[in-house]
Structures are given as structure tokens and as C-alpha cells.
Amino acid sequence: MGFWESLASVISGAGWRLGVTIALGAAGAAGCGRRETPVAAGNRDQVLLRGNASEPESLDPYLVRGAVEWTIVGGLFEGLVVPDLATLEPRPGAAERWEISADGLRYVFHLRAGLTWSDGSPLTTRDFEYGARRLLAPRLGSAHSENTLVFVRGARDYQAGRNPDWRSVGVRALDERTLEMQLARPTPFFLSALYLFFPVPQAVVEKHAPMDERVNNWIRPGHLVGNGPFRLKAWRQGQGVVLEHNPRYWDAARVRLREVHFLPIENASTEENAFRTGQIHLTSAVPLSKLDVYAREQPEALRVVDDRGVYFYSLNVARPPLQDRRVRQALSLAIDRERLARQVLKGGRQPAGHFTPPGIGGYVARAHLTFDPAQARRRLAEVGGSLPALELLVDAREHHRVIAETVQEMWRQHLGLTVTLRQQETQVLNSAKRGMDFQMVRGSWNATTYQDPYYFLGAWQTGGLYNEARWSHAEFDRWIEATWTTDLAAREAAFQRAEAIFLEELPAIPLFFSTQTFLMSPAVQGWRPVPFADRRLKELWLAAPAGRGP
């Protein structure tokens, strides 16, 4: 019987197989002569077991979109720079050092000596240049470029197909270890924007499909080649992803975890039960009904971290009745964000009266949304006083459903509006977004790279690949363009004007500023209370808590 076929235990109602953890438990029982939980066995063997919300949509570093994938991809690949685990400031990754020109337009990176891919082949700056060319390939359609290479000279025109000459793009391998990047304009946060820019092995990618083909088997086990602290050991639909230590990683001696198992547990209550019974070290979330319980009874297991993100509903502004901004305004005015965030969701979440989370790059929006049911009804009266039933598309997980049902009831109570909820698996939801197959859809963004308001507002420019509403507003675009200045006061004023327009037009309705809430075993070491520290797998290790070892 094979590895996966031996995984027979199923957690009821989860729709997934807890195979890896059961296998670990069995191995531990044999080794210790008594029943042992998978977590205890993992502690002994340095195998981290974590819930991962759902099945990864992809492991291609240029096609992934969400937290489900980023932690895995961050273990498989490493960029030129990485965030400091305590401060989030740029630190050397694959590049050991770099220089920046006085005018802020030229960056020169120097790779570490002797870098290799996980298959042992040499890794050079040409792999980074090829990665940049693939990331910007028009046919690949990577939205990932919006937060990384969009700031490079010529990148926008190349990706849009306006200039197909790669030589016009400011990315060049000068020699095997020296990479030059030239920017279109000074971008103080550019190094942080490179946190999610990774090299790609050309020979491996093109062995399976053309460079710009979205469906490519190079990301499958036995094919995928990376340069991160881990390599891909196994991935089976619905059963999880397994990463194993990469002995060819330049800093392999410091990587203490032997394996990391990602289990696609959609149901938050099932995931919490798996944590409580010693099946996993980490959850991806906490059931809303259990937040107060853990805060009161087991606070050492509960982690609540400001993840510098916003949760919102994107609106399809091309479809009636949502093409009328008065309708969008009425929907927003009827939402009591204070009650939603503080009474329903809790976990440190804050009501979002604007789109950009406060304090990002020192910026705090002055424009502010309000809860005003009477004004909401007046807005509707301007367009006829009633609306046809609308549909809201959300993920299948519990907290998305709770949020949607709360807002659905507010719209019913204050506007007499019928809203139907359509729950879908995350991959299906993302596909619907790409095809604009929705009226309203759940969205959430977190500042996983650079800490600047451009991360949140710049994405809504006309034609932006993260512009989920396909919204276009010429004046908004002009103010976003005006943020590219070294005059800090003028830049602040431009962001304020752009956000005010956004909140007037409302192509997306912000609901709350999010937090990362999850459960973590005290065995997990090396974690810091900063956003997404649990993604830095290289820094984590396991140590059995006193009195709890095998």
C-alpha cells in the first residue's frame, strides 16, 4: 500500500483526509510504545502540521493570489530580499548586498556565491531576469506584477503589449551574479516590493509548456524546482501539500524543520477540533464562537496580529443596478461596521470607514464612511426607491458566511433589500472574479510587501490587474499618478484626494480592517507577533513543551 493510500482516517464533515497526521501518529505510537498524537510525533521529528483553509489554486509563484498559497510558495522560493522577522525591513535573501543610485532609479543586486536550484543546477541572475520576463508576459496575465515589477522602467508597456521589445524593460543580468533594475521613477519602497519576486528555472518551465502558458505541470511534485529552504515532496488534491527540507538551500544549516504539512481544512470548527486534539500545530483561523473561549481559557494558544489588511465587497459596476453610484452608496450607508467588527467578529478587528488601513506608510485617510440608514434610503429613493434582488458571492468558510449573513440582514432591515448568498470554494470564487461572473463578491487585501498607501489605492487604477470591479475613473487615475513625487506633502494630499473619490464612487465597499487570528501550539518556536510571521518557515522549529513530550 502506498503512502497516500495508507491514509484512511477521515475527520467527519471536513471533506478532507487527515492522512499525513494519522501516519505520523501511527509512527509515533510504534516508537514510544503508547498512543501519541501527531503533534507530539511532529515535535520529535521536526514536522510542522498546519491547517491551510483550502486547496492551493497553484504553486506557480506568479499565479498565486492568497494566503493559502503564499506560505507554501515562500517555502519553495526565495527572492533577492526578504523581510526582517521583527521589523519587516528588507534584508539580504538570494542577494547578499545591493547598491541604489543617488537618484533612486538604479538598483544593482549582487547574488550570493554558489547558489543552486533544489535539483543542484546553478542559479544565476539570468534566472531572475527570466522570472521578470515571465512575470510580465502579457499572455500569462499575472496580477502579481502589480505589487512587484510594475515600478520598473518599461514594465507596464511590456505587460500591456504596447511594446513587445524586452530590451525596453529595465531588468538586466549584467553577469552571472549581478542584476540591474532601472525604475521608471523613484520608489522608496521598491526593495519591499521585491519580497514576492522570485527566480524561475527556464529549462524546467519550458520543458512542460511555453513560458506564458498558465496551465503548466512544472509546479507538480517531481517537476517543481525551487531555491527556497524547502522543496516539494507531495501534493494531492484534497489531501494536502508536503514540503521537505532542501539540503541545497544556501542557508540549509539554519533550517530546523524537516517537513511542513499543509492540510486543506475548509471547516473552521473541524480545524479547531484538530488543533485541540493534537492533530495540527497551527490553524489558519479561529471559529468566531471560540475566540472568547480561547482568550479566556487558553490565551497562550491564541494569536491575534494586525495583518494590515482590509476586508471588502467588490461590486460589478458594469451591471445594473450597481453601475449607479447612488445604489453603491446606499449599500454602504446601510452597513453598521462598528457592530460587525466589534460585536460580531471581534478578534481585534476594527470598522473600516475608509479603504486604506490606518498607518500604512504613515498615511491615515481623512475621508470617512458612515452608518446612516435614513440617508441610505434617501439614496435609493433617488433611483426609484427599490432594487431587484442581488447576489453576493463569498467563500464557503464559516467566518465569510457569518460576515455575509450579518450584512445581508442589515440590507434587509434598513433597505428592504433581498440579497441571496452564493457560497463557493475559494478556487471557484477566484475564477468568478477573473471572469467578472458576480454582482458582489468578497475580497481582502493585506500589505504583504511594501507598506505604502499605493498598495491599496494604486490597484484601483484603470486597467489594474487587481481592480476586481473593472472600475475606471479618470480623476482618480490622475491623483494616483500625482503620488509619484518626492514632495511628501504633495504625495499625502494626492492620496487623500484619490481616497475621497474612491469612497464617493465605491467600486468596493470596505467593511473592516482585518487581523490574523489563529491557534498555535506552544511547541512552535521562532514565531514573532508581526504580520505573517508564521509564513517564514525557515525561522520556525518545534520543541515539546515541558511535561508534554513523548
Structure description:
The chain has 550 residues and is of the alpha+beta class. The protein folds into 3 domains: 19-61 and 228-283 and 520-542, Periplasmic binding protein-like II (D-Maltodextrin-Binding Protein, domain 2, 3-Layer(aba) Sandwich), CATH 3.40.190; 78-208, Dipeptide-binding Protein, domain 1 (Alpha-Beta Complex); 306-515, Dipeptide-binding Protein, domain 3, CATH 3.10.105. The chain has helices at 19-32, 38-45, 67-76, 125-135, 155-159, 190-193, 202-208, 268-276, 291-297, 325-333, 337-345, 373-382, 398-415, 426-434, 454-457, 474-481, 488-505, and strands spanning 47-51, 81-83, 90-92, 95-100, 106-111, 171-175, 178-182, 230-236, 240-245, 259-263, 302-315, 350-351, 390-395, 419-424, 440-446, 508-519, 524-525, 541-542. The chain has a 6-stranded mixed beta sheet with strand order 12-16-11-15-13-14. The chain has a 4-stranded mixed beta sheet with strand order 1-10-9-8. A 4-stranded antiparallel beta sheet has the order 4-5-7-6, with helices on one face. α1 (19-32) crosses α2. The protein is globular, with a radius of gyration of 24 Å. Residues 1-33 have low confidence and may be disordered.
Write the layout of secondary structure elements.
Blueprint lengths: L18 H14 L5 H8 L1 E5 L15 H10 L4 E3 L6 E3 L2 E6 L5 E6 L13 H11 L19 H5 L11 E5 L2 E5 L7 H4 L8 H7 L21 E7 L3 E6 L13 E5 L4 H9 L14 H7 L4 E14 L9 H9 L3 H9 L4 E2 L21 H10 L7 E6 L2 H18 L3 E6 L1 H9 L5 E7 L7 H4 L16 H8 L6 H18 L2 E12 L4 E2 L15 E2 L8
Parallel strand pairs: 1-10, 13-14, 13-15
Antiparallel strand pairs: 2-3, 4-5, 5-7, 6-7, 8-9, 9-10, 11-15, 11-16, 12-16, 17-18
Helix pairs in contact: 1-2, 10-12, 16-17
